[in-house]
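Heterodisulfide reductase subunit B: structure tokens wanted.
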Amino acid sequence: MKFAYYPGCSLDSSAREFDLSTRAVSRHLGIEYVEVPDWSCCGASPGHSTSQLLALSLAARNLALAESTGLNVTAPCAACYHRLALACHELTGNQELREEVNQITGRPFNATIKVRSILEVITSVGLEQIATRVVRPLTELKIAAYYGCLLVRPRSVQVDDPENPQIIEKIMAAIGAQTVHWSHKTECCGASLAVSNEEVAIPMVFRILKAASLAGANCLVCACPLCHFNLDMRQGKVNQTLGTDFHLPVFYFTQLLGVAMGLDSRDLSLNTHFMDTAQVLKLVG
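Answer:
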């Protein structure tokens, strides 16, 4: 199984844990990646909030580069997936618009490829196949699976059901973990407001952490760098500002897959989080 791989800005910098663990787990499952040559920013979030044409052009350039590999493309970052998948959907269905955008980018996109989220790519191996690779079942973990806004909206590119997605829960079940039923799995974490308007974002993060804690979770798992950043890094600020005492590690789903498969912890970057992961990981040895 082979895909073009678009890391995007986050996985190349602040979300290195996601990139490293995704590559390590994929190698272990027999998934091969060809990194998109000369990739550039997908435009999230400023691009699409400024101009639809700009957003389409930024994404289309990367789609054209991915298309040159002859492979369907995957983008682990939820925002990157969202921008590339939406642009692919719009440009595939509108030849006139595609020609206009191709004129802007100077790199013709012919709409011959599909964009897949990393959740879809990993599960395409088969949950049963994933289960056979488990050497350390995560039976002591009680996980709140957090999807955020972008993976399940809008309908044209959603990865799973927008109200009650289950794809992460199914992956976690395959590696022996328990997942909790909770109310905030698709609520917004505040996204980039955590940078521009922290007073709005902090209560949003608080409500998610509170819901996960009340549901009995001892950690959260996500598939979005910005969600991870807000829930992990801002957790200390939530405690400081609101007088709470949350200590909920936030993992990328690929990190927990790697733990269950017995991969080297250095390849999963488990020690670079803001919230300490060691105590929870002791539960699984």
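The chain has two domains: 2-119, 126-282. The first strand starts at residue 2 and ends at 5.

Cheers.
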